[in-house]
Design a protein that fits this description.
Number of strands: 4
Distance between the termini: 28 Å
Number of helices: 8
Order of helices and strands: HEHEHHHHHEHE
Strand order of the largest sheet: 3-2-1-4
Helix content: 40-55%
């Protein structure tokens, strides 16, 4: 299999994403599988790469971090709503130096997936950090404003078009996520 370049349609930018490694990892996916499971999905970089290169027909993305799966639900099923809300949150930072901290506090109270995307895109080095209570604790990167709304719009619509109708989302433990895996599938496990 030829190694292709990593994709630029990654809607969740965070340190530790496998986007740049996806071409090499996906070389190991056997030919002829019908479903690819990614039970520690995170940014779902392997799923996105494999879907783009038609390495499977169906995909299962799972994560024990439920709000991340809520974010994937919006990316795949409601990209316009997500991009409009993200744009509102992103633009509000331009007039308010305390905006990031306000969004972080609101996210820690309600676990809104769009707020999570803004925090991940704007935090220091995209290095996501949570405390033992599950609260987002990383601070804002003062050198940049995060992923711009037009890029979010392009990426979430591209990923939605790529995955809609082809992906099942799972919230919870990885063992339960892959419990129905058959011999004709591939399970990619990259545990945290």
């Amino acid at each position: 299999m030829r190694i292709m370049k990593p994709l630029s349609i990654q809607p969740i930018p965070y340190q530790g994403s496998k986007r740049s490694l996806a071409p090499r990892i996906c070389q190991l996916i056997p030919e002829g599988i019908d479903t690819l499971y990614e039970p520690f999905a995170g940014s779902a970089a392997i799923t996105i790469y494999a879907a783009t290169h038609r390495q499977a027909e169906r995909f299962v993305i799972g994560d024990s971090f439920g709000v991340l799966i809520d974010l994937w639900e919006m990316i795949i099923e409601k990209p316009t709503e997500l991009s409009e809300r993200y744009s509102e949150i992103w633009h509000a930072q331009l007039d308010n130096p305390h905006h990031f901290n306000e969004v972080r506090a609101a996210y820690n109270d309600k676990a809104d997936p769009v707020q999570l995307l803004y925090l991940v895109a704007r935090c220091v080095k995209n290095a996501v950090r949570f405390n033992k209570h599950g609260h987002f604790t990383q601070s804002a990167d003062k050198r940049r404003t995060g992923m711009k709304p037009d890029r979010v719009t392009r990426t979430v619509h591209a990923v939605s078009k790529l995955l809609k109708g082809r992906v099942e989302r799972y919230r919870g433990d990885f063992e339960a996520c892959i419990s129905d895996a058959r011999p004709s599938v591939c399970v990619y496990i990259d545990a945290p």
